[in-house]
Amino acid sequence: MRVSLKDVAAHAGVSIKTVSNVVNNFRHVTPAMRERVQRSIDELGYRPNLAARHLRAGRTGIIALALPELGNPYFAELAAAVIDTAAEHDYTVLLDHTGGRREQELLVSQGFRARVIDGLILSPIELETEDLRDRTDDVPLVLLGERDYDLPYDHIAIDNVAAARVAVAHLVGLGRREVAFIGARRGRNEPAQLRVRGWREELTAAGLPVDEGLVAATDGWGHADGATAMTRILDSGRLPDAVFAYNDPMAIGAMRVLHSRGLRVPEDIAVVGFDDVVEGRFGAVTLTSVSPDKGAIGRLAVESVLARLGGAAPEARRIWADYRLVERESTLGRRGADADTSC
Which residues pair with 273 in a beta bridge? Predict the structure, then answer.
């Protein structure tokens, strides 16, 4: 039999309003009263009806999260951060996989789920400013990623140019002078363009030549794309002493090719990735990587949606999340990485 607020109130000897205040975590409840009600909740096994609570507020209790590639470890970890934060606010997350395709991103952004969601968190790849400017759906929208839309929506990102410069500066500081970049994209992809820009800027600042022959463009983000790009550079007769990859899967694919060619990481070629996914921490050679604060990105995204729902964020905001470089064996070698506690 389902336990009601009335049952808990009778058990605790308090009013239904008092029980409701405790369940909804209202601040103006004394510690003694909160403990008394919580004891009755635990003993009776009461579980709040979240659906009914949201419906009374005219909401569904669901936030949609639309990502371009669920198979990418970065997006999987980001989704987990969004889901965990949403759960803290009694919200459920509905995942949409756009595949980075414009037609799917349009479908999601234009509100085909408007009747079942309270807000949308979208990481677009192909949408243009005009696509979102014409949006008629009034469901709150929060954008993730580095595309610059200059539109009245909250937008959460990291500074990709600065982060790329940190990665290249690390390699240059280790004495590397020919740094390749793998993962420049054919066609428009703003994060890739920004990371290539950071690569160029840092090499220039260090007084090193910007060798465009060491930039390998790819069609995708995965391990095979990284392996193909690394193979292309080596087959061209070039032998850089360092590689900066667009993301960790590409860096791992590149390291596999280097190993198959008899090249040592980092002795012959140092490698830096981007995103700091779990996989990079447990390979035969652990991966140095730029680590965005995925937990903060997920938390900020959910809180931005909820602030919009509550009318607490009248102006659109560009919110910058933190990042750091985690140094591991792929640039420092085993001895140099002994102090790393991130593995």
Answer: 289
Task: For 205-223, write each residue's pLDDT tens digit.
Answer: 999 999 999 999 998 889 9
Q: Encoding tokens for residue 296?
A: 């903060």
- Yes or no: say if 67 and 142 are a contact pair by the CB < 8 Å rule: no
Residue 141 parent element (H or E): strand 141-144
pLDDT at 50: 53
Contact 216, 181 (CB under 8 A): yes
DSSP assigned state of 270: E
Residue in the block written with tokens 């008394």: 36
The tens digit of pLDDT for each residue in 254-284 reads 999 999 999 999 999 999 999 999 999 999 9
Euclidean distance between CA atoms 329 and 314, whole angstroms? 46
Q: Which H or E element spans position 204?
A: helix 190-205
Calpha distance 132→153 (Å, rounded): 9
- Separation of CA 222 from chain center: 16
Question: How does DSSP assign 311-338, residue by residue?
Answer: T---S--EEEPPEEEE--HHHHHHHHTT
**pLDDT tens track for 63-97:** 999 999 888 899 999 999 999 999 888 899 999 99
